[in-house]
Specification:
globular; alpha/beta; about 45% helix; about 350 residues; nine-stranded mixed beta sheet
């Protein structure tokens, strides 16, 4: 009898645990590293009595590959503009239920209009942050006179010859795009003349490039392992707050102007909670705090008004319109992207997996 009661008690506990697990909402978020204020995650979990399973990726290509190949359930991802188009074309995105997004009106209409370049009806995506890609450097190792030239050409300067102290991103569109920009072409131009010019520039730069990486430069530039790195402005500014030896420039030729968005996957098993999270992040106060944490430009007009003047006047976050005219949004270009990928593969194949 005692054994029977113990067995019965064990069964009840197991059933209770299963029932509890079923009642526990879990939201699976797949995002770039260090791209959301952890305190906001904790607050959302508490408010909604749920758990957020948060994982990260280091490139749009890696994100897309995992979504296509993984059996893991994912709810929200944060693709850059061209990959919003790619995910939508692949039938992987859920059309957003705007009735659940009561904070949508806080978004800047100008940014929403720009977002139409990758989501023509704004059906699938909510702008999360926008930013620019430039060059981060360590002042202890890179001469001020070199930095003052303020050009992408620094990457190929003889000062770095044989030093193995320069990196670029593990991102074909960003790397080839920088060379296109430097050569006077649009970053989405895949004409023979444009790609020939970009390839010539990259062959020169590649002599100084140690690796093509999208995460480790955040450690290597501060500690001096790398002296100069192609970098996203928000990443650089976060590090500059902690280390006065670091600097960042937006090259005078212009650069990529990118926009990351929040999207819900069609395969999401918790679409209602996913909408709640997106709406939570569009709350003006939450969006303000997230912008302060990330050091990226917010597309939330109401949140922007709450920011300190020092942040709003920082030209590395919110450049003058004159400079923005030189910047290009990376767009989905279909099969033509293979021509860009081929150039990148040629220069990066032997360097991306170096220790």
């Amino acid at each position: 009898m005692k054994t029977f009661l113990l067995l019965l008690a064990a069964i009840i506990l197991i059933l209770a645990a299963i029932s509890c697990a079923k009642r526990t909402n879990t939201l699976h978020i797949f995002n770039w590293a260090e791209y959301v204020d952890p305190e906001l995650i904790a607050e959302f979990e508490k408010e909604n009595e749920c758990k957020i399973q948060y994982s990260t990726y280091n490139s749009n290509e890696n994100m897309f590959t995992k979504i296509k190949s993984s059996r893991q359930s994912l709810d929200i991802v944060f693709p850059s503009g061209d990959h919003v188009s790619i995910l939508a074309a692949a039938g992987l995105l859920e059309i957003l239920d705007m009735s659940l997004l009561t904070n949508y009106s806080n978004l800047d209409p100008v940014i929403l209009d720009k977002a139409k370049s990758h989501d023509p009806e704004n059906n699938y995506s909510i702008p999360y942050f926008w930013g620019l890609t430039g060059l981060m450097y360590n002042k202890q190792h890179v001469p001020e006179k070199l930095v003052e030239t303020n050009t992408w050409a620094i990457l190929g300067d003889k000062f770095f010859e044989n030093k193995k102290k320069v990196t670029m991103l593990e991102d074909a569109r960003e790397v080839v795009g920088a060379a296109l920009n430097f050569s006077g072409f649009d970053m989405n131009d895949t004409s023979a003349d444009a790609l020939r010019a970009a390839a010539k520039v990259l062959d020169l730069w590649d002599n100084n490039i140690t690796r093509y990486v999208s995460e480790s430069y955040k450690i290597e530039v501060p500690d001096g392992t790398t002296w100069l790195a192609q970098a996203f402005n928000g990443d650089a500014l976060q590090l500059m707050e902690m280390n006065s030896d670091l600097g960042f420039i937006l090259p005078k030729e212009g650069c990529s102007l990118w926009m990351d968005s929040m999207v819900i996957l069609k395969s999401s098993k918790n679409k209602e909670l996913a909408h709640k999270f997106i709406n939570f992040m569009m709350n003006p106060e939450n969006a303000k705090r997230n912008a302060e944490y990330s050091q990226y430009a917010t597309p939330n007009r109401s949140a922007y008004q709450l920011l300190e003047e020092e942040i709003k006047n920082n030209k590395l976050i919110y450049p003058d319109p004159v400079y923005l005219e030189k910047c290009t949004m990376i767009e989905a270009i279909g099969e033509r992207v293979r021509n860009i990928n081929a150039i990148f593969e040629k220069i990066s194949l032997n360097k991306r997996n170096l220790p």
